[in-house]
Amino acid sequence: MKLSWLLLATLMLTTFSPMAGAQPAPAPLPHIAFDKTVLPNGLQLILVEDRRLPVVAVNLWYHVGPASEAPGLTGFAHLFEHMMFAQTRHIPRGMADRLLEGAGATDSNGGTGYDQTAYYDTVPSNQLELALWVHADRMGYLLDVLDQEALSIQQDVVRNERRQTVEDEPYGLVREALAHALFPKGHPYHASIIGSHADIQNAKLEDVRQFFARYYGPNNASLVIAGDIDKAKTRALVERYFGSFRRSPPVARPSVATPPITSERRVVVRDRIELPRVFMGWHTPPAYGPGDAELAVAAEILGGGKSSRLYKKLVYENQIAQDVDASQNALGLVSTFVIDVTARPGHDARELEAAIDAELAALREHGPTLREVERARNSLETALLSTIEKLGGDGLADQLNHYNQYTGDPGYLGKDLERLRRVSPADVQRAVRSWLRQDARAVVTGVPGKPVIHDPRPPKARPAAPLAGGGTGAGINAPEAWRAHRPKAGPPPQFALPQGESFRLENGLTVIHHQRPGVPLVSAQLVVRSGSAANPAGLPGLAGFTAHMLEEGTVTRSAPRIADEIAQLGAFLDTASGADASAVSLLALRASFPAALEIMADIVQRPAFPIAEIERQRASRVGDLVQQRDDPEAVAAVAALGALYGSRHPKGYGQLGTEQAIRAVTRDDLVEFWRRHFVPGNAALVVTGDIAHAELKTLAAAHFGAWARAEVPAASTPAPAGTRARLVVVDQPDAVQTALQVGTIGAARDSADFPVLQVLNGALGGMFSSRLNLRLREAKGYTYGVYSHFHYERSPGPFTIGTSVRADATGDSVRIIFQELESLRTAPLPPAELKAARDAQVLSLPGQFETNAEIGASLAELFIYGLPPDYYARLPAQLSAVSAAQVQDAARKALDPAHMVVMAVGDRRRILAQLRPLALGQPELRDDDGQLPPASP
Prior knowledge:
Elements: H1 5-8, E1 35-38, E2 44-49, E3 55-62, H2 76-83, H3 95-102, E4 106-112, E5 117-124, H4 128-141, H5 148-167, H6 172-182, H7 197-202, H8 205-215, E6 221-227, H9 231-242, E7 265-271, E8 277-284, H10 292-303, H11 309-317, E9 321-329, E10 335-343, H12 349-366, H13 370-387, H14 396-407, H15 413-421, H16 425-435, E11 441-448, H17 468-471, E12 501-504, E13 510-515, E14 521-528, H18 542-549, H19 559-568, E15 572-577, E16 582-589, H20 593-605, H21 611-629, H22 632-645, H23 659-664, H24 667-677, E17 683-689, H25 693-704, E18 727-731, E19 737-745, H26 754-766, H27 771-779, E20 783-790, E21 798-806, H28 810-826, H29 831-843, H30 852-865, H31 871-880, H32 884-894, E22 901-906, H33 908-915, E23 924-926
Parallel strand pairs: 2-6, 7-11, 13-17, 18-22, 18-23
Antiparallel strand pairs: 1-2, 3-5, 3-6, 4-5, 8-10, 8-11, 9-10, 12-13, 14-16, 14-17, 15-16, 19-21, 19-22, 20-21
Helix pairs in contact: 2-5, 3-29, 4-9, 10-13, 10-16, 11-12, 12-16, 18-24, 26-29, 26-32, 27-28, 28-32, 28-33, 29-31
């Protein structure tokens, strides 16, 4: 393999002991072996060979974003990103998505940043040519067939995306106001990337054509291909597909002067929220400029997790904040440093602001300690290395394109780490004094109230712009007949899905190991086969409360000490619960893993459940519940559980439970849940990454061998006793969208029908090219996206269809969902659709095992649900054997619309008027916790 994983594996071999005094000499800096060439037409090509998996990441960046938008066209770069997924001269509308998904593509999407627009796919290595064919036809032949219909649909989709991610998203309007406060009108960073409704709707087809012709030429693009490739053959393929394209006119990099903030700017924004939030923002140096790394370290010191200053003071000690965050957002023209803090119930923005100012003043005056800087650097290094663990998505290929755009060097990783390692306490203090001054900031406060939303109705449909040449638009590149033929796939790559190697300690603890040399990281999960389904009656949320308490102190370690030691190691520790399991998760550098594992073992086996920490967590969970009420999609999901299972069922609630239960939990309840369920015979330690089997055996015995054997609790779940209503409504007056969940009780994880249901779900709503998404998003423009999912659990879990739709499209959206459910029941899948759904499941499997955490989660699933060790080895053949008759039979049994419950969260008045014609019966009204309101006395 050409990528220097062996050199990467030496990174941080002398990493820090949490109690060490002097720091050891730094390890050798990593190096990524890449080839960069420039085609004669200006396309930059960057190749990396990495043969860990038989997959290839294709990552294409166009160096254009809002930084290049014309006045009056905010959001245009993002709108154009959507247009690039329309039809091209040689690929009809929708075909690219169907072909890529059917070929097993994962991480297949696009994204717009302020300075660039990215398009990416991860495909099996034998389908690289297919991905290049698609990306090349978009670059070379989009204009040839671009039409008003495609633009109008995507304008609707993007406006729905704005409603969902800005206007219905808690604090979305507040974040947007921060950008407005930091940058004047006319500045490229003034508007949010998605733009305004008016500008999105006002975009003309001619604007799209001009934008493409100016910015989407090969000389304004860089293509990274990373994975299981032969460099010479791959370069030849790129030259074949991209080499004949004409250059666009030269594109100058944006050069915009940003007026400095010379006196504090203050804005108050009302939003549909319950808890106030304070945002503070500053202009800071551009990406990779002097001061950028120092401010990244400062952000980690101020708001980077439980070891940060703001967390310790505002959340832990004073308990006035629900959550804190700080970030250095590196951009091309000018970066921003942002602090955001949410109030704890009963506290206000003035308290938050005063406390933040006190911490900033202390950092300016005294600077950070050396240990704080070390903790921040270590955490940032681990986070950076974790990004290259994955090839596609936001992984290695994207990181190389990022470095290439901002530094000109795709292999900047080593230099990036080097600049972090050079940061000293004095450097951080100077940067904070220079850039984070009170008179140079914008302060935007979000408070509860009715938001101001400018959402004009779209104009009447415009006639389609005429296309010259009998339906063919004015293209840029000469037609080439051979491009009309889809490339054939190469020989299928051979791949064995991880099976793991298991052993058991004498106390009954199962240990599952998968060694994965390469990036020097190790992921571990300690899972117990008990989650919210084991909650006692009257105490929903107890499993989650217990899991979170594990981090809050042991017999020998306080909560702050745990946070500091984990951060000093550059590790990340988390606890969580689900329906059937609770887990403690750990990510650490290879060299620091033994020390981090000792801390993990301590919190699992020796939690102290201090009263003071219980009360802190109690207040935090009440605050989390308050924030959950602000999110329509979260409310819909919790309401679905209550409607499907009933209030007496432990699975009829979200993981937080209810406020009544949170306030009622006692220390004895928490200790008893831990005592009964966190026992070695009910647990597995799953470890994946750069660690040998013999070493893991030694570590497991050392840290978990003394864990006392205890009786394993019996798992029993009562039958669901859900509502008889078919329509459940949560009223949120004036909501701009309706959050929908359409669901029923589905299947258990060990169901013999699992492969059939997976194929069925893929065709219905599990893929971008699914029936539901093609109709609700691509044909109607009602939504930003829709999904369906079987939540497989130990006992039958819910099947749900979820989406957020334009408020006035609620009724038609539910009608279409029922139509598609019925169509799967009344007619078998056509052969082509069956093959695409089946192949998508089979061929995408390798791409689901890219990271240590993904492998670990899959192996943990085998333990939680009692699946055989060779389960994944047998799964591809089972999926490949699924027939159309089986899919139709499964749909008849599992997806009867008459047994579906519709959960709708939005403006009740508008919802009921639209749903009345569907004859769903009397609606059942629930509150923002998804529960039935108390009966009247």
